[in-house]
Design a protein that fits this description.
globular, about 100 residues, about 60% helix, 6 helices, two-stranded antiparallel ribbon, mainly alpha
């Protein structure tokens, strides 16, 4: 993971969430531009405004989105984000909580 990728994460999320975000998304092989487009599309800054109580569901959403985006056919980022939006689930299981997001 390069410095540009870290800079993208720093633009959208608080420092205390970055290490876990890196752990969850790095295995999916997204490029910095793809991650920037993804975090922007999710309006991740607004999600972080919900506070640390919502960190687990927020990170679960990010992990699902990164995994799904990485599985989509390569095309321009805008089209891939549209395809991702079409697959957005109404609930996302949260690994470290008993509730699902949604």
């Amino acid at each position: 993971m390069n410095l540009t990728f870290h800079a993208v994460l720093a633009k959208y999320m608080p420092p205390e969430e970055r290490a876990e975000a890196i752990k969850r998304v790095s295995r999916h092989g997204l490029k910095s531009k793809e991650m920037d487009a993804l975090l922007g599309a999710l309006d991740y800054r607004a999600l972080t405004d919900l506070g640390s109580d919502h960190s687990a569901p927020r990170l679960a959403l990010l992990e699902w989105a990164a995994k799904t985006l990485a599985s989509l056919p390569k095309s321009n980022p805008r089209d891939r984000i549209r395809q991702l939006a079409l697959q957005m689930p109404t609930q996302i299981p949260v690994a470290d909580e008993s509730e699902a997001v949604g």
